[in-house]
Write a structure and sequence with these properties.
- The structure holds 2 protein chains of 2 kinds.
- By secondary structure, chain A is mostly beta strands.
- Chain A has 2 domains: 159 residues, 3-Layer(aba) Sandwich (Rossmann fold); 259 residues, TolB, C-terminal domain (Neuraminidase, 6 Propeller), CATH 2.120.10.30.
- Helices cover 11% and strands 42% of the residues of chain A.
- Chain A has a 6-stranded mixed sheet with strand order 1-7-6-5-3-4, covered by helices on one side. In chain A, strands 2-30-29-28-27 form a 5-stranded antiparallel sheet, with no helix packed on it.
- Chain A is globular.
- Chain B is an alpha+beta fold.
- Chain B has a domain of 108 residues: 60s Ribosomal Protein L30, Chain: A (2-Layer Sandwich).
- In chain B, helix 3 links the parallel strand 2 and strand 3.
- The radius of gyration of chain B is 21 Å and the shape is globular.
- The chains are: A mainly beta, B alpha+beta.
- At the A-B interface, strand 10 and strand 14 of A face helix 3 and strand 3 of B.
Chain lengths: 440, 183
């Protein structure tokens, strides 16, 4: 998919970054297709923006219609309410065809219109505009050139533009998720679109795989595999499929976390005795540099977005609690105080808070704590929730849970209002992680 | 040089013959972990047309104490209480027997694999399982085994022996296993 500046009302996005998405998309498409995850939504945002999405001109001829995907994306966020676009005469596809009075009467704040045409090179020329009903002006307009297998991605990018223009926050519909699927005694590491479509297996093993973590540029995954009869940390390229053991020292090697520059990993090693956090190079070169110095368990490191500090889990005070320390070394400070079991910290990408798992009376819930106020909000009812990770816009938290003895994925908004449940057919799904935004 | 080539070709043969049963099946995945370098040493198979000889089968008169069900060394699992890495009294004879065996067989290596029940963070459980394996190792080294003979690793909650979500399964999974290379 490429995007070009057309007439004045359309804006342009970097073609280099789009090329990268394209590459990633092609390589992932090379793997075998797997069952899709379906998403069920409960709850809604405090206020929902009413938006009408008019089916694009000539999209009914496409192998994948665009506006249903856009509508599903916006609905899934819980922040939008779709207004019925039917019965307008003429059906608007161009700005001059928009009858603002009628849209106002239907309660729409914004109207999305667009059209599809065949470009000279055989790709599709897809144009869309977001019209502000109150101001009666265009607030966004883009043209995309997409081949047939890029239609879903194009729809997600259109949803991202609408989301950003109407909420002021970046959209994350064109991102991906990774997770581990257990089928019988087989383990597979999957990568899928954020809406659960297009799942691809990137690794298959007879031994467990845990803790996948996206590199900041979204092109590599670090994970822990037990294929050598012990935990070993690997880094795998999604572009080439090649992989490398980057931490395979004596003892156990686990809990990889990327530095924001993508050059280093924090990992938990037992090479010198107890489980401690070390920094290693992401290409596996060099000697590990020990970061924590305790006689307790220190594990589950996670870098702050500015790369200056890490959060980690430690039982140095008795039970497991979350601590923070500078990456340059120095004393660690305890940051969680409610309850006797707080684990698995992950920074929000905006750096303002972190999510973690809190145990209350034998139940494990997803919680979020604000750095400034130290306020803790428990977001899920709990049970056996684990492995939380933020969406790149800090709005949603993806985590693993269990229903009827099977592992499932779920997501909750960071204010606890919107809840989504991803379900895959008859397999056990766990260890999710949300990709970064790779187009910026 | 000739010998080097022979070893190389055997390693290649071993690498080729092992592909159909490969455990790892990545999508265009290249394994750079050096697995081929550690291909098991195999004697070249010489084609003989004449009479062939066979070594006398090793009947277990002298026996392998590690495999003899009557020997305490055939027992390999140490079980733990909830949230504990203390080796209970009932497992001390087992641990000391393995320590003595390692003391008497200085070239023998062993791995101790720690495990936990399924509750809680997977990564924190890796660390808790490691602590159980380390507790067994510490007792063995106090009883005469050398630290270098023992590698401790953890499976956390990832390889449960019992798959139920009840106390009986959980107690079965709070365990450290002593594993010898040829087990």
């Amino acid at each position: 998919m490429s995007q070009k500046k057309a007439n004045m009302p359309f804006s342009m996005v970097s073609t280099i970054s789009l090329l990268r998405i394209l590459l990633l998309g092609l390589l992932l498409a090379a793997g075998a297709a797997r069952a899709a995850l379906t998403i069920e939504i409960t709850g809604a945002g405090a206020s929902q923006i009413p938006v009408a999405i008019v089916p694009f001109r000539a999209e009914e001829g496409l192998a994948q219609r665009l506006t249903p995907v856009v509508e599903a994306d916006l609905a899934r966020s819980g922040l939008f309410r779709t207004v019925d676009p039917g019965g307008m005469n003429p059906v608007p596809h161009e700005p001059e065809q928009v009858n603002y009075a009628q849209w106002r009467a239907r309660g729409a704040d914004a109207v999305v219109i667009g059209s599809v045409a065949k470009a000279a090179d055989g790709r599709y020329d897809i144009r869309f505009r977001v019209m502000d009903v109150a101001k009666q002006t265009q607030i966004a307009g883009f043209v995309y050139f997409a081949s047939e297998n890029q239609l879903r991605l194009t729809a997600h990018r259109i949803a991202d533009v609408i989301y950003e223009k109407l909420t002021g926050e970046p959209g994350v519909f064109a991102t991906r998720i990774t997770y581990v699927v257990k089928r019988g005694t087989r383990y597979e590491l999957h990568v899928a679109d954020a809406d659960g479509f297009g799942a691809q297996s990137v690794l298959s093993s007879n031994e467990p795989i845990i803790s996948p973590a996206w590199s900041p540029d979204g092109t590599r995954l670090a994970y822990v595999s037990f294929e050598q009869k012990k935990p070993v940390v690997y880094v795998q390229s999604l572009l080439s499929g090649s992989r490398q053991a980057v931490a395979a020292f004596r003892g156990s090697n686990s809990a990889p976390a990327w530095s924001p520059d993508g050059r280093r990993l924090a990992v938990t090693l037992t090479r010198d005795g107890n489980s401690q956090i070390y920094l290693i190079n992401a290409d596996g070169t060099g000697v590990p540099q020990r970061l924590t110095q305790s006689s307790a368990i220190d594990t589950e490191a996670n870098f702050s977005p500015d790369g200056q500090s890490i959060l980690f889990t430690s039982d140095r005070g008795g039970g497991p609690q979350i601590y923070r320390m500078p990456v340059s070394g120095g004393p660690a400070q305890r940051v969680t105080f409610d309850g006797s079991y707080n684990v698995s910290p992950r920074h929000s990408p905006d750096g303002k808070s972190f999510t973690f798992i809190q145990r209350n009376g034998g139940r494990f819930s997803v919680a979020v704590q604000d750095f400034a106020s130290r306020q803790v909000q428990v977001l899920t009812d709990g049970g056996v929730d684990e492995s939380p990770s933020f969406a790149p816009n800090s709005r949603m938290i993806l985590y693993a849970s269990r229903v009827g003895g099977r592992g499932i994925l779920a997501a909750v908004s960071s204010d606890g209002r919107v809840k989504q449940r991803f379900s895959a057919d008859a397999s056990d799904v766990r260890e999710p992680a949300w990709s970064p935004v790779v187009n910026k | 040089m000739k010998r080097y080539l022979a070893v190389m070709s055997i390693a290649l043969l071993a690498a080729c013959s092992s592909t159909p049963t490969s455990e790892q099946e990545g999508a265009a995945v290249e394994d750079r972990s050096g697995a081929t370098a550690s291909a098991p040493a195999q004697k070249p198979q010489t084609q003989t047309t004449g009479p062939s000889t066979k070594p006398l089968a090793d009947k277990s008169l002298s026996g392998n104490p590690l495999k003899d069900p009557a020997n305490i060394l055939s027992k390999r699992s140490v079980y733990f209480e909830l949230d504990s890495n203390v080796v209970r009294d009932e497992f001390k004879p087992l641990v000391s027997a393995h320590a003595r065996y390692l003391q008497q067989n200085r070239t023998q290596k062993v791995t101790i694999q720690g495990n936990t029940d399924e509750r809680g963070s997977r990564e924190y459980n890796i660390a808790l399982g490691q602590r159980r394996a380390d507790a067994v190792k510490q007792m063995m080294t106090l009883l005469g085994a050398q630290s270098e003979q023992i590698e401790t690793v953890s499976f956390g909650e990832e390889k449960p022996k019992a798959t139920g979500s009840d106390e009986q399964s959980w107690s079965e999974n709070r365990r450290a296993d002593i594993v010898y290379p040829n087990d």
